[in-house]
Write a structure and sequence with these properties.
heterotrimer, A mainly alpha, B alpha/beta, C alpha/beta, B: alpha/beta, 8-stranded mixed β-sheet, 13 helices, 34% helix, globular, C: alpha/beta, Rossmann fold, 4-stranded antiparallel β-sheet, 11 helices, 29% helix, 24% strand, dipeptide transmembrane transporter activity (chain A), membrane (chain A), transmembrane (chain A), transport (chain A), transmembrane helix (chain A)
Amino acid sequence: MPATVIAYIIRRLFAAIVLLFVVSAVTFSIFFVTPKLLGATPETLATRYVGRTSTPDTIRATAEKLGFYDPVVVQYWNWVKGIFVGADYDYGPAVEHCPAPCLGYSFRTNQPVWPDLLDRIPVTLSLAVGAAVLWLLAGLAVGTLSALRKGTIFDRVAMGVSLAGVSLPIFFTGLLSLSVFSYNLGWTAVGGAYTPFLENPGEWAYNLLLPWITLALLFSAQYARLTRAGMLETMNEDFIRTARAKGLPERTVVVRHGLRGALTPILTIFGLDVGLLLGGAILTESAFSLQGLGKYAIEGILNYDLPKVMGVTILAAFFVVVANLIVDLLYAVVDPRVRK
Amino acid sequence: MSHIPEDSLDSGAGLPFLQVRNLRVHFPTDDGVVKSVDDLSFSVERGKTLGIVGESGSGKSVTSLSIMGLHKEGAARISGEILLDGRNLVGMDREKVRLLRGKRMAMIFQDPLSAMHPYYTVGAQIVEAYRVHNKVAKQVARKHAIDLLARVGIPNPKSRVDDYPHQFSGGMRQRAMIAMALSCDPELLIADEPTTALDVTVQAQILDLIRDLQQEFDSAVVLITHDLGVVAELADDIMVMYAGRAVEHSTATDIFNSPQHPYTWGLLGSMPRLDRERSERLQPIKGTPPSLINVPDGCPFNPRCAYAGRNGDLSFTERPEFRDIGGGHHIACHLPTEDRHHIWDEEIRPKL
Amino acid sequence: MSTPKPAGELLSVTGLRKHFPIRRGILQRQVGAVQAVDGLTFSVNRGETLSLVGESGCGKTTTGRLLTRLLEPTSGKIVLDGRDISHLSMSAMRPLRCDVQMIFQDPYSSLNPRHTVGTIVGAPFRLQKVRPENGVKRAVQDLLELVGLNPEHYNRYPHEFSGGQRQRIGIARTLALKPKLIVADEPVSALDVSIQAQVVNLLEDLQDEFNLTYVMIAHDLSVVRHVSDRVAVMYLGKIMEIADRTSLYERPMHPYTVALLSAVPVPDTSRRTRRERIRLQGDVPSPINPPVGCRFHTRCWKAQEVCKVEEPALAELAPGHRAACHFPENVGGSV
């Protein structure tokens, strides 16, 4: 690997780390500084841990132990430290050790956040990756065909449907498909069930099929439009004319020369979308009652359970940054001009 | 209807490799029918070079794309005949035309940077061109690609074969394009403005290369350009096009030494020349090229022609026939022979 | 009405350099520079046309951008009409934009498609807050007429015009503030041959009428000979040869100039066999690591050892004729 490529990778990695810190700082500020600005005192925050019935003294003591009186910077530092080396929470009678990566304890359940997140990652991961494969294939196929048949009935119908697909909200398409395919026709699983892939791949897919399709419908619509626009541009490039002049079969021209050229910008957006989804597909998970990260976040929000929300947010940010990094590196693979 | 007797331009023995007869390429658009090529006939023999000269919109590039069958299906209405080695390409099954493309006829384009795929190595693109028409192993094709790169003058072909187009200089890229076009030994090579995007010293190298290769491969070459200097370097015959039609067609020597059409005079007068004393003033053609949707009645060149008034109203009402004025020299002009000779000798030649 | 020709220097350039840094590695440290323009010295007199010619990468376009101060020079001095403009800030440069104007190559991308011709040509008045005597509209119409366009087309949009007409619009805009110096970057190379001649003639007529001073940037040696009073041949950021037109074209001294001239295709078939050609090998080297010594030595058929080590000075080998070569041609004045 040439030195320039290594330098490129290191630079990207470095940028990703910096970005993560920035994101965490911003997230931290949003969840811990904003309430303060809105009038929350350390005591009201501590109340969330110990409950309203506690005496003011207990509350104050808890606030003290949780570090709510410290300056924000110190609190942030402790929080970051928790992620890297773990933290000890002193609840008075007992000191609980929260091993790294420690994202704090849920206000509600008093359970550490990280193991909860770990439980839910496979669900969200299965949902996101499965849907991503579906929508990428569907989007690329429909988009390419639309571009090649620009202005025909196929193109118009496909683009009309995809406009609808982009516009229709998940909770509508999700609930509708659930009621038709699961409850009425009984073809697919009713929501809520999740079987780990390693346990039973067939069951895994069967349970996730409907959520995949629902989620993929939304995204494939957008990808079909992107692919169509990209293909229309690429197919007008000079190198396409060259490929035809060589006598290549049209299929080779379209796939090897056209699609390959149009793929780069789609790749960028794909990486970001998958990264975002890994942080939780809130609507889909809710509609199909999947115990994923999105559902977890929603619970956190509804209960004003800050550590939960914070945990999902930072994990989501992590996924987005990592996805971005992978896209950057893939760029160098796809487009030799980037490697310079 | 044909304006040219079929045997008029190919006086030599044997059938010309490429014959174009009464070619029309029309594009229906919302504003009307764009008549990009209208009743065009010419032919090229093996081992000969035909230069097609014209300005933008003259139909020269559309002609070349029609020969190659590269117009989008349905977009262009093509009629007439394009005979490649006696077989008519117009109306031929698209798949059959595809199998001829790259094998028996190949094309070089103007801008080698945009004409090569940025994501594949130069070698891969040549290998691809070779393997479409020759069922050989990848390694064999790669060896062939390296040989071709060496033949077109690329140093270190063994390592350059794995470079990407952006790693080549402009001249090297055009050499690689030529290597790609030659990969299957085509009998017809169409070069569309092959040197326009290149620097003048590199242009000279590429023109030399095309000339050498033609002698080696004995192919028929169609050279399309706006630059009269470039055709003078390579062409045996020259056809001057204007508004989708041929206005003059003869040997290169004739075109430069005794051009007979006012448009050709105009082109020669417009360009400053290094081989003449510097003139005080260029003699431009007035006006601008016509719209191909509303081509002027009569002679399409009449609004810009300084001599259109000399034929009564003939130039404004009747399309001049493209006819032989002796020795295979064809023009489409109403001016009587004596007038033409007189104008050329007295008015045009002294000013060039 | 033609103004009497005030003689003397309008523009003087000394040791002009522009290096574009190249950053590499993890910390993006500067590891080198594209030496786009590397020490130019020349001057332009009032009312004359100086052309900069050369192949791509020779730095002619960068020079044009430096002269109009669209770029800041790395070092060197640009004096316009007695005033040093080398490092003027954007705001200090603004009033001087009346004096220096630029004509661009591509008449398609250099005109804003959403503005009418009137707005485009009138823009300099607005930007410089100049109020023409009879109002902007009248002034614009006069300008349109001057460049051979119909003044009634004031309200039309650029796409309604052909390439040649657009270039005329660009020229009209350039002339609005009666600039002292016009830098024209390949003004005709995007145009068809017949239209090229119209625009060349127009530029010459305008020069005669307003005593304009042009710096033309071009690659077409035939056009350059036609329009220029003096010509500078550039190669890899340096001037190889500079002379008045006749001297340069009839007695080129630098081998590079000789090669350039011999490479120009000529519309005459009889020359095909007769002509003694000099064919340069290879391509122009990269301006990142230009050859040491004479920059042309890697492609020069006359190169000797000395050319690889010692850079020849741009010396005056005949009156008004300078060339940077250890072994110049046509010296001794016997031609």
